[in-house]
Specification:
The protein is of the alpha+beta class. The chain has helices spanning about 10-20, 50-55, 90-105, 115-139, and strands at about 25-35, 40-45, 60-70, 75-80, 80-85, 115. The protein contains four helices and six strands. The protein has a six-stranded antiparallel beta sheet with strand order 5-4-3-1-2-6, sandwiched between helices. A hairpin with a 4-residue loop joins β3 and β4 (about 75-80).
């Protein structure tokens, strides 16, 4: 906590953010639990494989999952662990080869590239602060 009382990011969270950036596709996943609990928000890589792994890793706890791009445009939503709506049908076809074997129990969901939305917002805030400090230092 050496930065004015703010909690520093965990190294593994920073590393996960960098791994998400490396995929060059990112957005948000909103998970609505089947038990009626509070909605969970994550920052995720929106590659076809990662979306399939995200859905597959939450198969039994999600009533609904909504995945959007960074501008909050719908990529897809689910009913349980089945894709309900996917405006870009070509992208939906890219997800199927990864998702169907998970749904059929032929394979487990792989690693999911995601962090909580709170962690991502903290990361972006710290990046903005660092950029501002660098600009001030140039004056």
């Amino acid at each position: 906590m050496g930065n004015g009382g703010k909690q520093e990011m965990k190294k593994e969270d920073t590393e996960m953010m960098l791994r998400i950036f490396e995929t060059e596709r990112a957005g948000y996943a909103y998970l609505y639990p089947s038990d009626g609990g509070e909605r969970k928000e994550d920052y995720i890589s929106t590659t076809a494989e990662n979306i399939a792994n995200y859905i597959g890793s939450h198969m039994f706890e999600a009533e609904k999952i909504v995945i959007t791009d960074m501008c909050d445009r719908l990529i897809l939503d689910t009913c349980g662990y089945f894709i309900n709506s996917c405006p870009n049908q070509e992208f939906c076809k890219e997800i199927h080869p990864f998702l169907i074997p998970i749904q059929m129990g032929e394979k487990d969901a792989g690693e999911v590239l995601s962090v909580s939305r709170d962690v991502s917002e903290q990361y972006f805030r710290e990046e903005d602060e660092a950029a501002t400090m660098a600009e001030i230092g140039m004056m």
